[in-house]
Amino acid sequence: MPVTTGMKGGGYYDANSREQRSAADSFLPWLEAAIADLPTPDASQSSWNVLDIGSSEGANAIYTMNRLVAALRQHSDLPVWALFDDLPTNDFNQLFLNLFPDHMPALNAPDVYTAAIGGSAFGRLVPPRSLHLATTFNAIGFFENRPTARLPHFVLAMQPNPAAPRDGVSVTPEELRPFQEQAHHDLCEFYKARAAELVPGGKLLVQVFGRNATQSTGHGICDVLSDALLDFVEADLLPQTFYEDFLFPAYYRCPEELAAPIEQVPELASAFRIDQVADIDAPVPFNAEFERTGDRKAWAESYTGFLRAFTEPVLAAALPVDLVEEQIVAKIYQRIEQLLADNPERYEFHFISIAALLTRL
Ligand SMILES: C[S@@+](CC[C@H](N)C(=O)[O-])C[C@H]1O[C@@H](n2cnc3c(N)ncnc32)[C@H](O)[C@@H]1O
Q: Does the UniProt entry include the keyword Methyltransferase (predicted)?
């Protein structure tokens, strides 16, 4: 069954995703520089075709697309097809409102044409050999399907953060294995689809939330989510079975896992050259403000907004309907905000952004 991975719509994701933009920004210069190596268009090529996958409501995706169009125009004057994909459950109305604010195109270079596509990153989205550039930011960490494996003592397929221990919270290496295999399988499908869609010489920039040797983007956010849910269980406001069944359907990869399909699967090794792979501890705007002001309440509020934008639809879909009607979702986020304001050290947040730049052979 496909997972619920949608963002909180109606402009909420756009208003609470400066952190994702910062995490993607550091890797955009890779692609801007690589655009100079795109194959020179021949007489039959009528446009540059660019696809962003997992664009959500679009504020970040449109910003990125504008930068790529500017880089393409340094290379040639061809028209540009700017394509934005997300799951059919996405708030596409907001995406189109963002594409044409005040009836003016947000992609403001001349001869740029836009379209949106509903479909999964892990399947085919456009005809064969039709793309020159493909990008994805902060999206392919979500599983394609809801994992069938269970994780009764934590909310994320990851070793719990040693810096935020709690009795009863644990994950064994054996419990993690099926999730690692599922994430690897998803990524193989993603690369196979892009291999079919990109022209020879086309470029693929893949960026996603991940982990390095000591930090994970899942630390902090999933610790506070887990703590809030367990507090509700202990106060008899949620059944214990809810915590045992709940799983945030994402996987936080290390850079080696991002490159593994290309290195290990012969079909992919012959389809792509890996130009760059890296991880960074990306600047987090709400942490920078906290450092500047020391205002932990403001930090907790921004942190909660950031977390809520991508967790609320998942949480709301998993909660029993009668509890949702009792406003439990709002109460859980109030609890999260309180926990953050009271314990900033326990829930320290690092955005470990990982990326790979690939060329289609
Ligand atoms: C955290 S948002 C990232 C939005 C934007 N790219 C950014 O960096 O701000 C993740 C987006 O990925 C989308 N997504 C999740 N799974 C997907 C899939 N299998 N195919 C396409 N989009 C997916 C979600 O619907 C959501 O809009």
A: yes
Q: CB of 207 closer than 6 A to ligand 1?
A: no
Q: What is the pLDDT of residues 250-301, one digit of tens each?
A: 999 999 999 999 999 999 999 999 999 999 999 999 999 999 999 999 999 9
The ligand 1 atom at the shortest distance from the C-alpha of residue 207 is 8
- At 191, the amino acid letter reads Y
User: Is 20 a pocket residue for ligand 1 (Cβ < 6 Å)?
Assistant: yes
Mean pLDDT, residues 16-37: 95
Query: CATH number for the 12-360 domain, one of 3.40.50.150, 3.80.10.10, 3.40.570.10, 3.10.129.10?
Result: 3.40.50.150
Instruction: Determine the distance separating the centroid of ligand 1 and the alpha carbon of 80, expressed in angstroms.
Output: 23
DSSP conformational letter for 135: E
Q: Is 355's C-beta closer than 6 angstroms to any atom of ligand 1?
A: no
Answer whether 349's CB lies under 8 Å from 219's CB: yes
What confidence category does residue 35 fall into, taking pLDDT thresholds of 50, 70 and 90? very high
For residues 352 and 218, give the distance between their C-alpha atoms in angstroms, rounded to a whole number: 9
Q: How many CB atoms lie within 10 A of CB 77?
A: 10
Under the banding of pLDDT at 50, 70 and 90, the label for residue 4 is low
Q: How far is the CA of 17 from the centre of ligand 1 (A)?
A: 12
% the chain with pLDDT above 90: 91
> Does ligand 1 lie within 6 Å of residue 72's CB atom?
no
CB distance 121 to ligand 1 below 6 Å: yes
Rounded CA Rg of the chain:
21
Q: Are strands 272-282 and 198-209 parallel, antiparallel or unpaired?
A: unpaired
Domain regions of the chain by residue span: 12-360
Average pLDDT value over all residues in the chain: 96
